[in-house]
Amino acid sequence: MNHLLDRTRRHAVKSARIMGPPTLLTLRRWALAAVVVNIGITVTGAAVRVSGSGLGCPTWPRCTPESFTPVAHAEISPLNMAIEFGNRMLTFLVLAVGVACLVAALRLPSRRPDLIRLAWLQPVGVAFQGLWGGLVVRSALNPVTVSVHFLVSIGMIAAAYALYARAGRERGEGVPPRPSQRARRHVRTLAFALVAAVFVLLVVGVVVTGTGPHSGDEMASRFGFDIETVARIHADVAYVVVGLTFALAFALHITDAPGYARRAAWTLLGVEAAQGVVGYVQYFLGVPAALVNLHVLGATLVWLCALRVLFATGPHGAREVPETVGGELDTVRV
What we know:
It is a single chain. With 334 residues, the protein is mostly helical. It has helices at residues 2-19, 24-50, 78-106, 113-138, 143-166, 185-211, 227-254, 259-284, 289-312, and strands at residues 320-325, 328-333. Strand 1 and strand 2 (328-333) form a beta hairpin.
């Protein structure tokens, strides 16, 4: 009984930390949750496509012309309908977390306009994605609309991570770190170039996807490019990204950058290596659905790690913010 009471008390304390007084630490936790759910719905969206369930719910906003929820339909597999409808339902989870981010930002004792603007992007982005999803269905999964759908999710991941990182900084930024710990200006420029190259890699990746076999439905159109040509271009851009990552990791080392920035760069390089292995294996195996979905997950992780490197190389990337929550002192770090 005592053990059960102790567990109940611990869960209550954790809940109070999340739902209790507004703090930067609370906001960071919600922002991190937003990163996770946005990655989740991006990956499940890919699962909808590779499973051929893109038109499992053939209408929007209803699932079928007669109902908002799945009902038996002679021309549609129940499994495909369930997969598509399940992905639609995840939108409400992403919206709930986005609203929580906004409420947490608005309730901060000292208003931070930068955080409020970033927090607004979450519920607004979900609303846009919901409307755009209707266009995707009504266009019968046109590859342009599907590509934009994915890229907006990438943007929402970036906004959520920016909210997470900036909420770890005190207003006014405090005292700059020692010169020996500051990433040099050219290193910062290299970090921006790396993130830009990763974004180009993602754009080329959606072109490859829009040209390949996983259209989401037999009725869907495809880009008219040669699949081998766009796949080679995608691989070439990936080599550029890996080269920039290695150059940045080396630059951080020789400029005596903080350890967390160097670790972020090497972590990104490791994720890129794993993603490259998955990419080549799926290509030579004829792009099986499971590996395509894994590759999409890898793409979101590469993007997230690149953003982490960018913020870690900022002038105040290591700024710590002490937060007193429930009588305990917590420290948050970008």
